[in-house]
From TrEMBL:
InterPro entries attached to this UniProt entry: DCC1-like, DCC_oxidoreductase
One Pfam family it belongs to: DCC1-like
Protein name: Thiol-disulfide oxidoreductase DCC
Listed PANTHER family: DUF393 DOMAIN-CONTAINING PROTEIN, THIOL-DISULFIDE OXIDOREDUCTASE DCC
Lineage top rank: taxon: Eukaryota
Amino acid sequence: MPKNMRPPEGVESWLMFDGVCNLCDGFVNFVADHDSDRLVKFGAQQKHMELLKRAGAPTDLSTLVLIQGDRHYVYSDAALRTMAVLDWPWRGLAAFALVPSPVRDACYKFVARYRYLVFGKTESCRVPTGDFRRRFIDYRPEEEEADPISST
């Protein structure tokens, strides 16, 4: 894996995704399942446009956005840097960062262009429940007490 793919100790990783995209939702589920250290938090781009603007990141839903501290990453860099914090063997996929970024990003953009056609989309962003809810950047523990399904 290339050096410096993982954030420095103590820097959070926020993965911002298209909340109505089934492919993106599947990637978020995959990351949550293979991030045993719970290093990545999630947020639907539709809900966090202001945060994306403050980070200087795209707001057009054309890419995943990974925010780590004061830096943001898009396209294949966002996906591969996310993979770099996952458990082994998935972390090894970050080695694809050795492929030149124009090649990686062309592939990423091709898939992104057709993601709704191939994988479909939902009418609205899903509402996370239970333990998965705690992985979202807008999670508030005080809301959990009033939510009867939060412990599921």
